[in-house]
Specification:
10 strands; 21% strand
Length: 234
């Protein structure tokens, strides 16, 4: 049973068979220089920097034959799931959803910018969840899919830390999953947002779960005997 140091000397222990890796929104419109976010002036370098570490974790979970979930954030081509508030906010940010962008209609299903970057492309047996909300559980089949596979633990990474990553991990905690956030495999456009979110997760005795590093997860999957401290997650 792999264990890894995390969250103030509390060890996160898990079984690959009952653990899912959830990779949040590693899409071209968010990550690439020529995507909608980069074209609007956002600093996407911190998002790009995590890609090699996310890939290492993804490869480790693939070798372990564990459940892997990729999420994609955006709207339907007919904009039927684009709320007025999200239309407003995206317009104010300079990248209104559903309008023409550098990689097709911005964050719109079926468009090039909506797709996951090539370095992290899902394999045929991996779950892909399209979502129109920040949290990956709202209005999707994610909870049903995880429960059908006997998943009790989830490891979360992706972008952006303070938005879709945090929203998803909060939803997972509320649904009773043991959640581990891989801090160096999550990206935000500002470090203050990254650090603020990590402090929130760790607050109140890590009320929002465990925090670890990608290398810890990779090493734990490589060597099931890794163990450092007591925990109650298994």
């Amino acid at each position: 049973m792999p264990s890894m140091p995390a969250a103030a000397n509390r060890t996160y222990t898990f079984k690959p068979a009952s653990t899912a890796l959830i990779i949040i929104d590693m899409q071209r419109d968010f990550i690439e220089d020529g995507g909608a976010c980069g074209a609007s002036g956002a600093n996407v370098k911190p998002l790009q920097d995590i890609v090699p570490r996310v890939r290492e974790v993804l490869d480790a979970f693939r070798r372990a034959n564990a459940t892997i979930v990729h999420t994609r954030y955006g709207v339907k081509p007919d904009l039927s799931n684009l709320t007025r508030v999200m239309r407003y906010h995206s317009r104010q940010a300079g990248c209104e959803y559903g309008t023409p962008g550098p990689l097709g209609r911005i964050l719109t299903e079926g468009e090039p910018g909506f797709q996951i970057i090539n370095q992290l492309s899902p394999q045929h047996d991996e779950v892909v969840i399209n979502k129109s909300t920040f949290g990956a559980f709202t209005f999707t089949k994610l909870d049903t899919v995880l429960k059908s596979k006997g998943i009790t633990h989830v490891v979360v990474c992706g972008v952006t830390t303070q938005c879709c990553v945090e929203s998803t991990l909060r939803e997972a905690v509320d649904r009773g999953y043991f959640v581990l956030t891989l801090a160096d495999c999550c990206g935000a456009v500002e470090d203050t947002l990254q650090q603020g979110t990590l402090r929130a997760i760790a607050s109140e005795a890590n009320i929002l779960g465990w925090i670890g590093k990608g290398a810890d997860a990779v090493n734990a999957l490589r060597d099931p005997k890794v163990s450092t401290a007591n925990d109650s997650s298994s």
